[in-house]
Design a protein that fits this description.
Radius of gyration: 19 Å
Structural class: mainly alpha
Order of helices and strands: EHHEEHHHHHHHHE
Distance between the termini: 38 Å
Number of domains: 1
Helix content: 55-70%
Largest sheet: 2 strands, antiparallel
Low-confidence stretches: 243-262
Strand order of the largest sheet: 1-4
Mean pLDDT: 78
Shape: globular
Number of strands: 4
Length: about 260
């Protein structure tokens, strides 16, 4: 069955392409990292939040979650010393795959006409929750307080809430697309760095944790997560931009003719 870009998705696709082009430019233009720095921190929170959520869903607990100045992150979970093989695999995989899945979810929400304001507020709530629980409340019990995690989480939350309130509809839609692209591209670029670390060092990465669990080389897990992420993003883009080429009960309406977001 043939697919085509839906008429009502074309303005959104243009915004997505512009967001992707800007994201790539910020990666390769010297010193442009300063502009993308807050967004990289956002992706790190989502990455580490994926580990934390996986731990909770598998009945384990989170000892700490921290984000560092260099945009790296660390989530320490408490799992049984014996057993829990599948849950440990799930927790280790939930960072990179979770970040790409979150980006795909943002694209899907926009395609389903969920207002960008609500997506931004929802993202702010997630960052605020991670910051409050794992950056402040949990450290009170184990003395692992990370000031940068709290400060950066609070600033990102405030920025998302301010954007949801003060930006216009087009700017909000573009920002959501940009954040989604950042989640996907940052995860992919970080997987590239992960592969290099796996080949050249014994750094305690997510892939190295998987190697210790399964005795399968860490480079395999980096490639596997990249493949899974590619599938997730491909499906999300198809749902985001295309429609089946079949007769419709009514023609697609232009995006600009839909009720304006206020």
């Amino acid at each position: 069955m043939k697919y085509r870009i839906a008429n009502d998705a074309r303005p959104q696709v243009k915004a997505l392409l512009a967001a992707a082009a800007l994201s790539l430019a910020l990666w390769f233009i010297p010193y442009a990292w300063v502009l993308s720095y807050p967004f990289q921190l956002f992706v790190t929170f989502i990455h580490e939040g994926g580990h934390a959520l996986a731990a909770v869903l598998t009945g384990n607990s989170v000892r700490s979650l921290s984000v560092a100045l260099d945009t790296s992150g660390l989530t320490e979970t408490l799992t049984p010393a014996e057993g829990g093989f599948l849950s440990k695999m799930f927790i280790s995989s939930a960072g990179y795959v979770g970040a790409m899945a979150f980006g795909a979810l943002m694209l899907w929400l926009v395609r389903k006409r969920v207002k960008a304001r609500f997506v931004l507020v929802g993202s702010a709530v997630i960052i605020a929750g991670l910051t409050a629980v794992f950056g402040f409340l949990v450290p009170l019990t184990n003395l692992s307080f990370s000031p940068f995690t709290v400060v950066s989480g609070a600033l990102i939350t405030a920025g998302l809430l301010a954007a949801s309130k003060y930006l216009g509809p087009r700017a909000r839609n573009f920002l959501v697309s940009f954040l989604a692209v950042q989640c996907v591209l940052n995860a992919l670029f970080n997987l590239r760095d992960l592969l290099m670390l796996s080949i050249n060092t014994d750094a305690p990465t997510d892939a190295k944790n998987m190697e210790m669990l399964t005795h399968i080389p860490s480079i395999f897990w980096g490639l596997f997560w990249a493949a899974v992420g590619f599938v997730i993003v491909t499906l999300a883009l198809r749902a985001y931009a295309v429609s089946k080429d079949v007769p419709a009960s009514q023609p697609d309406l232009p995006f600009e003719d839909s009720p304006l977001e206020v």
